[in-house]
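Operator note (shift B, R.M.): manual run for Nucleotide sugar dehydrogenase requested after the automated queue skipped it. Running by hand, logging everything below so the morning shift can see what happened. Input copied straight from the record, untouched. If output looks odd, do not overwrite the archive copy; leave it for review.
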Amino acid sequence: MKVVTIGLGYIGLPTALTFARHGAEVIGVDISERTIQMLNAGLVPIEEHGLNNFLKNALEKKNFRASLVPEKGDVFIVAVPTPNLQDQFGSCDLHYVEQALRSILPYLEKGNTVIIESTIAPRTMEDVIQPFFEKAGFIIGEDLFLVHCPERVLPGRILHELIFNNRIIGGMTERCTKKGKEIYGLFVQGELLEASASVAELSKLMENTFRDVNIALANELVKIGSKLNIDALEVIQMANKHPRVNIHQPGPGVGGHCLAVDPYFIIAKAPEETSLIQQARQINKSMPRFVAEKALSILHENNGGVITLLGLAYKGNIDDMRESPAVEVLNELQELSNTTIQLFDPHINDVGAETLEEVMRESDLAVILCDHDEFKELPEKAIDLMNHKVVFDTKKIVANQEKFDQYYTLGNLLTESEETEMGAHYE
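Run finished. Output pasted below as returned.
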Protein backbone atom coordinates (compact mmCIF):
# COMPACT_ATOMS: atom_id res chain seq x y z
CA MET A 1 0.00 0.00 0.00
CA LYS A 2 1.33 3.40 -0.99
CA VAL A 3 0.20 6.29 1.20
CA VAL A 4 0.58 9.95 0.24
CA THR A 5 0.20 12.25 3.25
CA ILE A 6 -0.44 15.94 2.64
CA GLY A 7 0.76 18.05 5.57
CA LEU A 8 3.68 17.08 7.81
CA GLY A 9 2.86 18.92 11.00
CA TYR A 10 1.98 17.72 14.48
CA ILE A 11 -0.55 15.17 13.14
CA GLY A 12 0.45 14.50 9.54
CA LEU A 13 4.06 13.57 10.27
CA PRO A 14 3.34 11.09 13.10
CA THR A 15 0.58 9.56 10.97
CA ALA A 16 2.86 9.21 7.95
CA LEU A 17 5.67 7.66 9.98
CA THR A 18 3.28 5.28 11.74
CA PHE A 19 2.07 3.97 8.38
CA ALA A 20 5.71 3.61 7.30
CA ARG A 21 6.55 1.84 10.56
CA HIS A 22 3.92 -0.77 9.72
CA GLY A 23 5.10 -1.53 6.21
CA ALA A 24 3.38 1.02 3.97
CA GLU A 25 5.32 2.97 1.36
CA VAL A 26 4.81 6.59 2.37
CA ILE A 27 5.34 9.88 0.57
CA GLY A 28 5.06 12.84 2.92
CA VAL A 29 4.18 16.13 1.25
CA ASP A 30 4.53 19.62 2.67
CA ILE A 31 4.84 23.14 1.27
CA SER A 32 7.80 23.94 3.56
CA GLU A 33 11.16 23.36 1.87
CA ARG A 34 12.84 23.46 5.27
CA THR A 35 10.59 20.68 6.58
CA ILE A 36 11.25 18.50 3.53
CA GLN A 37 15.02 19.01 3.72
CA MET A 38 15.13 18.27 7.45
CA LEU A 39 13.06 15.07 7.18
CA ASN A 40 15.04 13.66 4.27
CA ALA A 41 18.20 14.41 6.27
CA GLY A 42 16.81 12.47 9.24
CA LEU A 43 15.89 15.49 11.37
CA VAL A 44 12.47 15.94 12.97
CA PRO A 45 11.19 19.55 12.90
CA ILE A 46 8.76 19.15 15.81
CA GLU A 47 9.05 17.82 19.35
CA GLU A 48 7.15 14.58 19.92
CA HIS A 49 8.27 11.61 21.99
CA GLY A 50 9.59 8.74 19.84
CA LEU A 51 9.28 10.52 16.51
CA ASN A 52 13.03 10.60 15.90
CA ASN A 53 13.23 6.81 16.15
CA PHE A 54 10.24 6.36 13.83
CA LEU A 55 11.86 8.61 11.21
CA LYS A 56 15.23 6.89 11.50
CA ASN A 57 13.58 3.49 11.09
CA ALA A 58 11.54 4.63 8.08
CA LEU A 59 14.55 6.12 6.30
CA GLU A 60 16.65 3.02 6.95
CA LYS A 61 13.94 0.81 5.47
CA LYS A 62 13.50 3.30 2.61
CA ASN A 63 9.72 3.34 2.95
CA PHE A 64 9.38 7.06 3.75
CA ARG A 65 10.34 10.04 1.66
CA ALA A 66 9.42 13.72 2.00
CA SER A 67 8.52 15.77 -1.05
CA LEU A 68 7.21 19.18 -2.03
CA VAL A 69 4.79 17.66 -4.54
CA PRO A 70 2.41 14.67 -4.42
CA GLU A 71 2.62 11.61 -6.63
CA LYS A 72 0.39 8.68 -7.48
CA GLY A 73 -0.57 6.34 -4.66
CA ASP A 74 -3.30 4.13 -3.25
CA VAL A 75 -4.31 6.28 -0.28
CA PHE A 76 -4.20 10.07 0.07
CA ILE A 77 -4.40 11.50 3.59
CA VAL A 78 -5.05 15.22 4.10
CA ALA A 79 -3.73 16.45 7.45
CA VAL A 80 -3.39 20.20 7.03
CA PRO A 81 -4.37 23.00 9.43
CA THR A 82 -7.92 24.32 9.65
CA PRO A 83 -7.66 27.59 11.59
CA ASN A 84 -10.51 29.89 12.52
CA LEU A 85 -11.63 32.49 10.02
CA GLN A 86 -11.66 36.05 11.29
CA ASP A 87 -15.43 36.31 10.96
CA GLN A 88 -18.25 36.77 13.47
CA PHE A 89 -18.18 33.21 14.81
CA GLY A 90 -14.65 32.02 14.03
CA SER A 91 -15.82 29.52 11.44
CA CYS A 92 -13.64 26.86 9.83
CA ASP A 93 -11.08 28.07 7.30
CA LEU A 94 -10.91 25.40 4.57
CA HIS A 95 -8.26 27.19 2.53
CA TYR A 96 -5.49 24.66 3.26
CA VAL A 97 -7.81 21.67 2.82
CA GLU A 98 -9.02 22.93 -0.56
CA GLN A 99 -5.42 23.65 -1.57
CA ALA A 100 -4.48 20.07 -0.63
CA LEU A 101 -7.40 18.61 -2.61
CA ARG A 102 -6.39 20.55 -5.71
CA SER A 103 -2.79 19.38 -5.31
CA ILE A 104 -3.71 15.66 -5.31
CA LEU A 105 -6.38 15.78 -7.99
CA PRO A 106 -3.97 15.27 -10.95
CA TYR A 107 -2.61 12.12 -9.28
CA LEU A 108 -5.88 10.40 -8.39
CA GLU A 109 -6.91 7.18 -10.12
CA LYS A 110 -10.00 5.02 -9.91
CA GLY A 111 -9.92 2.85 -6.82
CA ASN A 112 -8.01 5.38 -4.70
CA THR A 113 -9.08 6.38 -1.19
CA VAL A 114 -8.98 9.98 0.04
CA ILE A 115 -9.01 10.44 3.81
CA ILE A 116 -9.53 13.81 5.48
CA GLU A 117 -7.87 13.82 8.90
CA SER A 118 -8.00 17.59 9.29
CA THR A 119 -10.61 18.78 11.77
CA ILE A 120 -13.50 20.25 9.80
CA ALA A 121 -16.91 21.78 10.46
CA PRO A 122 -20.06 19.62 10.41
CA ARG A 123 -21.29 18.71 6.91
CA THR A 124 -18.02 19.77 5.23
CA MET A 125 -17.56 16.31 3.71
CA GLU A 126 -21.10 16.31 2.37
CA ASP A 127 -21.38 19.95 1.29
CA VAL A 128 -17.84 20.77 0.13
CA ILE A 129 -15.46 17.84 -0.30
CA GLN A 130 -17.71 15.25 -1.97
CA PRO A 131 -18.98 17.80 -4.55
CA PHE A 132 -15.38 18.77 -5.32
CA PHE A 133 -14.51 15.22 -6.40
CA GLU A 134 -17.85 14.64 -8.11
CA LYS A 135 -17.25 17.73 -10.21
CA ALA A 136 -13.93 16.14 -11.23
CA GLY A 137 -15.86 13.12 -12.53
CA PHE A 138 -15.51 10.62 -9.68
CA ILE A 139 -18.37 8.52 -8.34
CA ILE A 140 -17.96 8.42 -4.56
CA GLY A 141 -18.19 4.89 -3.18
CA GLU A 142 -17.56 3.28 -6.58
CA ASP A 143 -14.38 4.59 -8.18
CA LEU A 144 -13.20 6.90 -5.37
CA PHE A 145 -13.55 6.18 -1.67
CA LEU A 146 -13.93 9.20 0.58
CA VAL A 147 -13.53 9.06 4.38
CA HIS A 148 -13.31 11.47 7.29
CA CYS A 149 -11.10 10.01 10.01
CA PRO A 150 -10.35 12.70 12.62
CA GLU A 151 -7.33 12.36 14.84
CA ARG A 152 -7.97 12.12 18.59
CA VAL A 153 -4.50 12.07 20.12
CA LEU A 154 -2.69 13.84 22.94
CA PRO A 155 0.55 15.71 22.15
CA GLY A 156 3.42 13.95 23.90
CA ARG A 157 1.66 10.60 23.44
CA ILE A 158 0.74 10.80 19.76
CA LEU A 159 2.59 7.72 18.51
CA HIS A 160 1.13 5.55 21.27
CA GLU A 161 -2.40 6.88 20.91
CA LEU A 162 -2.43 6.61 17.11
CA ILE A 163 -2.13 2.86 17.60
CA PHE A 164 -4.11 2.17 20.77
CA ASN A 165 -6.93 4.73 20.74
CA ASN A 166 -10.29 3.91 19.20
CA ARG A 167 -10.65 5.48 15.77
CA ILE A 168 -13.75 6.90 14.10
CA ILE A 169 -14.06 5.87 10.45
CA GLY A 170 -16.58 8.19 8.82
CA GLY A 171 -17.22 7.06 5.25
CA MET A 172 -19.42 8.81 2.74
CA THR A 173 -20.85 5.38 1.87
CA GLU A 174 -20.66 1.92 3.43
CA ARG A 175 -17.98 0.91 0.94
CA CYS A 176 -16.00 4.04 1.83
CA THR A 177 -16.18 3.12 5.51
CA LYS A 178 -15.04 -0.43 4.74
CA LYS A 179 -12.04 0.93 2.82
CA GLY A 180 -11.16 3.23 5.70
CA LYS A 181 -11.26 0.34 8.16
CA GLU A 182 -8.97 -1.73 5.94
CA ILE A 183 -6.44 1.12 5.77
CA TYR A 184 -6.31 1.99 9.48
CA GLY A 185 -6.50 -1.67 10.35
CA LEU A 186 -2.86 -1.80 9.29
CA PHE A 187 -1.82 -0.49 12.71
CA VAL A 188 -4.76 0.62 14.87
CA GLN A 189 -5.29 -1.76 17.80
CA GLY A 190 -8.18 0.20 19.27
CA GLU A 191 -11.72 -0.25 17.99
CA LEU A 192 -12.48 0.99 14.48
CA LEU A 193 -15.80 2.78 14.94
CA GLU A 194 -18.05 2.95 11.89
CA ALA A 195 -19.94 6.21 11.38
CA SER A 196 -21.23 8.52 8.70
CA ALA A 197 -18.86 11.32 7.75
CA SER A 198 -21.13 13.93 9.35
CA VAL A 199 -21.28 12.03 12.63
CA ALA A 200 -17.50 11.70 12.57
CA GLU A 201 -17.11 15.45 12.00
CA LEU A 202 -19.39 16.49 14.85
CA SER A 203 -18.13 13.77 17.20
CA LYS A 204 -14.56 15.07 16.95
CA LEU A 205 -15.70 18.62 17.56
CA MET A 206 -17.85 17.65 20.53
CA GLU A 207 -15.04 15.66 22.16
CA ASN A 208 -13.02 18.85 22.42
CA THR A 209 -16.02 21.07 23.14
CA PHE A 210 -16.94 18.81 26.08
CA ARG A 211 -13.52 19.39 27.58
CA ASP A 212 -13.59 23.12 26.86
CA VAL A 213 -16.98 23.52 28.56
CA ASN A 214 -15.88 21.55 31.62
CA ILE A 215 -12.64 23.49 31.94
CA ALA A 216 -14.72 26.67 31.77
CA LEU A 217 -16.71 25.45 34.77
CA ALA A 218 -13.47 24.94 36.71
CA ASN A 219 -12.15 28.35 35.66
CA GLU A 220 -15.38 30.02 36.70
CA LEU A 221 -15.04 28.28 40.07
CA VAL A 222 -11.59 29.89 40.44
CA LYS A 223 -13.17 33.31 40.00
CA ILE A 224 -15.89 32.44 42.51
CA GLY A 225 -13.27 31.26 45.00
CA SER A 226 -11.28 34.46 44.55
CA LYS A 227 -14.42 36.51 45.18
CA LEU A 228 -15.46 34.54 48.30
CA ASN A 229 -11.98 33.78 49.68
CA ILE A 230 -12.46 30.01 49.29
CA ASP A 231 -9.77 27.71 47.88
CA ALA A 232 -11.21 26.57 44.54
CA LEU A 233 -8.64 23.81 44.13
CA GLU A 234 -9.61 22.31 47.47
CA VAL A 235 -13.27 22.56 46.46
CA ILE A 236 -12.53 20.59 43.30
CA GLN A 237 -10.61 17.99 45.26
CA MET A 238 -13.50 17.52 47.69
CA ALA A 239 -16.24 17.59 45.04
CA ASN A 240 -14.43 14.96 42.98
CA LYS A 241 -14.67 12.56 45.90
CA HIS A 242 -18.31 12.18 44.85
CA PRO A 243 -18.61 9.02 42.71
CA ARG A 244 -20.36 10.83 39.86
CA VAL A 245 -18.47 14.14 39.84
CA ASN A 246 -15.31 14.89 37.87
CA ILE A 247 -14.62 18.61 37.76
CA HIS A 248 -11.72 19.37 35.44
CA GLN A 249 -8.61 21.28 36.52
CA PRO A 250 -8.52 25.05 35.97
CA GLY A 251 -5.64 26.90 34.37
CA PRO A 252 -4.48 30.14 32.77
CA GLY A 253 -6.69 29.49 29.74
CA VAL A 254 -7.21 26.88 27.04
CA GLY A 255 -4.88 26.48 24.08
CA GLY A 256 -3.76 24.17 21.34
CA HIS A 257 -5.07 23.29 17.91
CA CYS A 258 -8.24 21.62 19.24
CA LEU A 259 -9.90 22.92 22.40
CA ALA A 260 -9.44 26.61 21.62
CA VAL A 261 -10.48 26.21 17.98
CA ASP A 262 -13.00 23.41 17.45
CA PRO A 263 -15.95 24.80 19.44
CA TYR A 264 -16.14 27.73 17.05
CA PHE A 265 -16.75 25.37 14.13
CA ILE A 266 -19.94 24.22 15.83
CA ILE A 267 -20.91 27.74 16.90
CA ALA A 268 -20.58 29.01 13.33
CA LYS A 269 -22.90 26.31 12.02
CA ALA A 270 -25.55 26.76 14.74
CA PRO A 271 -25.05 30.12 16.51
CA GLU A 272 -28.52 30.31 18.07
CA GLU A 273 -28.29 26.79 19.51
CA THR A 274 -24.85 27.08 21.12
CA SER A 275 -25.24 29.61 23.94
CA LEU A 276 -23.57 27.33 26.50
CA ILE A 277 -20.61 26.59 24.22
CA GLN A 278 -20.21 30.30 23.46
CA GLN A 279 -20.28 31.24 27.15
CA ALA A 280 -17.67 28.57 27.94
CA ARG A 281 -15.42 30.00 25.26
CA GLN A 282 -15.73 33.47 26.72
CA ILE A 283 -14.88 32.23 30.22
CA ASN A 284 -11.78 30.41 29.02
CA LYS A 285 -10.72 33.35 26.85
CA SER A 286 -10.97 35.62 29.91
CA MET A 287 -8.50 33.61 31.98
CA PRO A 288 -5.22 35.04 30.61
CA ARG A 289 -6.29 38.55 31.64
CA PHE A 290 -7.50 37.24 35.00
CA VAL A 291 -4.12 35.57 35.60
CA ALA A 292 -2.22 38.65 34.44
CA GLU A 293 -4.18 40.89 36.81
CA LYS A 294 -3.61 38.53 39.74
CA ALA A 295 0.10 38.30 38.94
CA LEU A 296 0.41 42.08 38.94
CA SER A 297 -1.46 42.29 42.25
CA ILE A 298 0.97 39.80 43.81
CA LEU A 299 3.89 41.74 42.35
CA HIS A 300 2.53 45.02 43.73
CA GLU A 301 2.02 43.48 47.18
CA ASN A 302 5.78 42.86 47.29
CA ASN A 303 6.72 46.18 45.68
CA GLY A 304 8.36 44.24 42.86
CA GLY A 305 9.07 45.21 39.29
CA VAL A 306 10.22 42.04 37.48
CA ILE A 307 8.03 39.10 36.48
CA THR A 308 9.40 35.80 35.16
CA LEU A 309 7.06 33.74 32.98
CA LEU A 310 7.89 30.02 32.98
CA GLY A 311 6.48 28.15 29.98
CA LEU A 312 5.08 29.45 26.70
CA ALA A 313 3.82 26.20 25.14
CA TYR A 314 0.13 25.47 25.46
CA LYS A 315 0.75 22.29 27.48
CA GLY A 316 3.57 20.48 29.22
CA ASN A 317 6.62 18.83 27.65
CA ILE A 318 5.96 19.94 24.06
CA ASP A 319 7.09 22.86 21.90
CA ASP A 320 3.67 23.71 20.47
CA MET A 321 2.64 27.34 21.03
CA ARG A 322 -0.55 27.30 18.97
CA GLU A 323 -3.29 29.30 20.74
CA SER A 324 -1.17 29.17 23.90
CA PRO A 325 -2.76 30.91 26.89
CA ALA A 326 0.75 31.62 28.18
CA VAL A 327 1.35 33.85 25.17
CA GLU A 328 -1.94 35.61 25.90
CA VAL A 329 -0.88 36.16 29.52
CA LEU A 330 2.31 37.76 28.20
CA ASN A 331 0.30 40.01 25.89
CA GLU A 332 -2.05 41.02 28.72
CA LEU A 333 0.86 41.85 31.03
CA GLN A 334 2.43 44.01 28.36
CA GLU A 335 -0.87 45.81 27.85
CA LEU A 336 -1.62 46.32 31.54
CA SER A 337 1.79 47.35 32.82
CA ASN A 338 5.31 48.52 32.01
CA THR A 339 6.67 45.82 34.32
CA THR A 340 9.85 44.07 33.16
CA ILE A 341 8.98 40.57 31.89
CA GLN A 342 11.48 37.72 31.55
CA LEU A 343 10.70 34.54 29.57
CA PHE A 344 11.85 30.93 29.68
CA ASP A 345 10.65 27.72 28.07
CA PRO A 346 13.07 24.76 27.91
CA HIS A 347 11.18 23.22 24.99
CA ILE A 348 11.11 26.28 22.72
CA ASN A 349 14.26 27.55 21.07
CA ASP A 350 15.17 31.21 20.68
CA VAL A 351 12.60 32.44 23.19
CA GLY A 352 13.83 34.31 26.26
CA ALA A 353 16.58 33.10 28.56
CA GLU A 354 18.52 29.87 28.13
CA THR A 355 18.48 28.66 31.74
CA LEU A 356 16.30 28.87 34.84
CA GLU A 357 19.15 30.52 36.73
CA GLU A 358 19.43 33.24 34.11
CA VAL A 359 15.70 33.97 33.90
CA MET A 360 15.03 34.00 37.67
CA ARG A 361 17.96 36.24 38.56
CA GLU A 362 16.65 39.41 40.27
CA SER A 363 13.05 38.38 39.61
CA ASP A 364 10.29 39.42 42.02
CA LEU A 365 7.69 36.88 40.90
CA ALA A 366 7.85 33.62 38.94
CA VAL A 367 4.61 32.69 37.17
CA ILE A 368 4.33 29.06 36.04
CA LEU A 369 2.05 28.88 32.98
CA CYS A 370 2.91 25.44 31.63
CA ASP A 371 3.36 22.07 33.36
CA HIS A 372 6.75 21.16 31.95
CA ASP A 373 8.59 18.55 34.02
CA GLU A 374 11.46 21.03 34.42
CA PHE A 375 9.23 23.22 36.60
CA LYS A 376 8.05 20.54 39.03
CA GLU A 377 11.04 21.04 41.30
CA LEU A 378 12.66 24.38 40.67
CA PRO A 379 16.38 24.41 41.50
CA GLU A 380 17.18 26.06 44.85
CA LYS A 381 20.09 27.84 43.16
CA ALA A 382 17.69 29.55 40.76
CA ILE A 383 15.24 30.43 43.55
CA ASP A 384 18.03 31.99 45.62
CA LEU A 385 18.80 34.38 42.74
CA MET A 386 15.35 35.99 42.99
CA ASN A 387 14.84 39.38 44.64
CA HIS A 388 11.63 38.07 46.17
CA LYS A 389 11.09 34.33 46.47
CA VAL A 390 7.49 34.37 45.28
CA VAL A 391 5.82 32.01 42.80
CA PHE A 392 2.36 32.01 41.23
CA ASP A 393 1.87 28.39 40.11
CA THR A 394 -1.17 28.35 37.80
CA LYS A 395 -0.74 24.59 37.21
CA LYS A 396 -0.04 23.64 40.86
CA ILE A 397 2.91 21.42 39.98
CA VAL A 398 5.77 22.72 42.15
CA ALA A 399 6.89 20.04 44.60
CA ASN A 400 9.37 22.11 46.63
CA GLN A 401 6.92 24.85 47.60
CA GLU A 402 8.69 25.34 50.93
CA LYS A 403 11.65 26.91 49.13
CA PHE A 404 9.52 29.98 48.38
CA ASP A 405 8.52 32.66 50.86
CA GLN A 406 5.12 32.91 49.18
CA TYR A 407 3.42 30.23 47.08
CA TYR A 408 0.26 31.16 45.19
CA THR A 409 -2.03 28.94 43.12
CA LEU A 410 -5.38 29.48 41.47
CA GLY A 411 -6.86 28.34 44.78
CA ASN A 412 -5.25 30.75 47.25
CA LEU A 413 -5.17 33.99 45.27
CA LEU A 414 -5.53 37.43 46.71
CA THR A 415 -9.23 38.24 47.03
CA GLU A 416 -10.81 41.23 45.34
CA SER A 417 -11.19 42.96 48.71
CA GLU A 418 -7.50 42.47 49.50
CA GLU A 419 -6.54 43.92 46.14
CA THR A 420 -8.77 46.93 46.76
CA GLU A 421 -7.27 47.50 50.22
CA MET A 422 -3.78 47.41 48.73
CA GLY A 423 -4.82 49.85 46.06
CA ALA A 424 -3.48 47.56 43.36
CA HIS A 425 -2.35 49.31 40.22
CA TYR A 426 -0.38 48.18 37.21
CA GLU A 427 1.87 51.07 36.29
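Quick read of the result: The two ends are 63 Å apart (CA to CA). The first strand starts at residue 2 and ends at 6.
Leaving this for review. - R.M.
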